[in-house]
Amino acid sequence: MKNFLFTCTFQILAALLLVFISCQTDPKSDQPLPDQVDFNFHIKPILSDRCFQCHGPDENARKAGYRLDLQEAAFAPLDSAADDFAIVPGSIKHSQLIDRLVSTDPDYVMPPPESNLNLTDYEIALLKRWIEQGAEWKPHWSFIAPQKSEVPQVRGQQVFNQIDNFVVAGLRGTALKQAQPESKLKLLR
Length: 189
Description:
Blueprint: H1 2-22, H2 39-50, H3 52-55, H4 71-74, H5 96-102, H6 121-132, H7 162-171, H8 184-188
Helix pairs in contact: 2-6
């Protein structure tokens, strides 16, 4: 009975710790920007969380007739004059998206204040870097053929299979160390 109570208490504390960690205000703010911004990994989550509500696939909720969920629409001219674009690959200066994100005018800023949505400085910096790097739009990850990765070469570590090579390579530069193998008897328990 004592072991059962200890296990339950431990699980509850672990769950509370995970909730506490996940509820921090902005876990990305201390992160450096990646060298190469990936659309599917970095940009699409920002757009879908903050922009698709008004500029997404639902035509009944769409504002200003503008879509950010399709590549052809996101890079299309904003007006009939064809001189304003939301996203101009390689040019932050000519991209209306960035102007609207950093604006202080409540009538111009996106997302609008009444939506109760906002972007962090880190997310805006990611969008800027993505545009600077050419705003490469990728299809959904499930439509991209997987590429075989090179198996990292590691020395001086216990490696039993190729997965261990990836784990050891991922641990380099961190304070974490590879665990020693457990006995078969302990693993059977």
